[in-house]
Amino acid sequence: MVLRMSTLTEIQEAISQLSPLEQQQLARWFEEELEDAWDAEIEEDAKAGKLDRLYDQLKKEDGDNHAVSLDDFLDDTQLS
User: Fold this and answer.
1) What global pTM score does this model have?
2) 26-44 residues labelled b (16+ CB within 10 A) or e (exposed)
3) Predicted confidence (pLDDT) per residue in 45-68, tens digit
4) Three-state SS string across the chain, please?
5) Cα–Cα dist 60/3, whole Å
6) DSSP type of residue 7
7) Is the dihedral of CA 71, 72, 77, 79 positive or negative?
8) SS3 content of the chain, % helix, strand, coil (to 5)
9) Residue 25 has pLDDT above 90, yes or no
């Protein structure tokens, strides 16, 4: 039996009817879906050249033996 849910409210109501274990399983599944979507977005951006400037900046800094943590890099508004 397949239920059709077309609104966020319907989906939220259905989720609230799940057991705690089922909600945890759904949360894990959804997290994986978000991670896959993020990976696909990054891959598309890389193929489109949108990350070239950032890559060049990292290469330059690495060439100067200046390591930048990923968190620092992402937080630096001049780089992102």
Assistant:
1) 0.57
2) eeeeeeeeeeeeeeeeeee
3) 888 988 888 888 877 776 666 666
4) CCCCCCCHHHHHHHHHCCCHHHHHHHHHHHHHHHHHHHHHHHHHHHHCCCCHHHHHHHHHHHHCCCCCCHHHHHHCCCCC
5) 54
6) S
7) negative
8) 70, 0, 30
9) yes
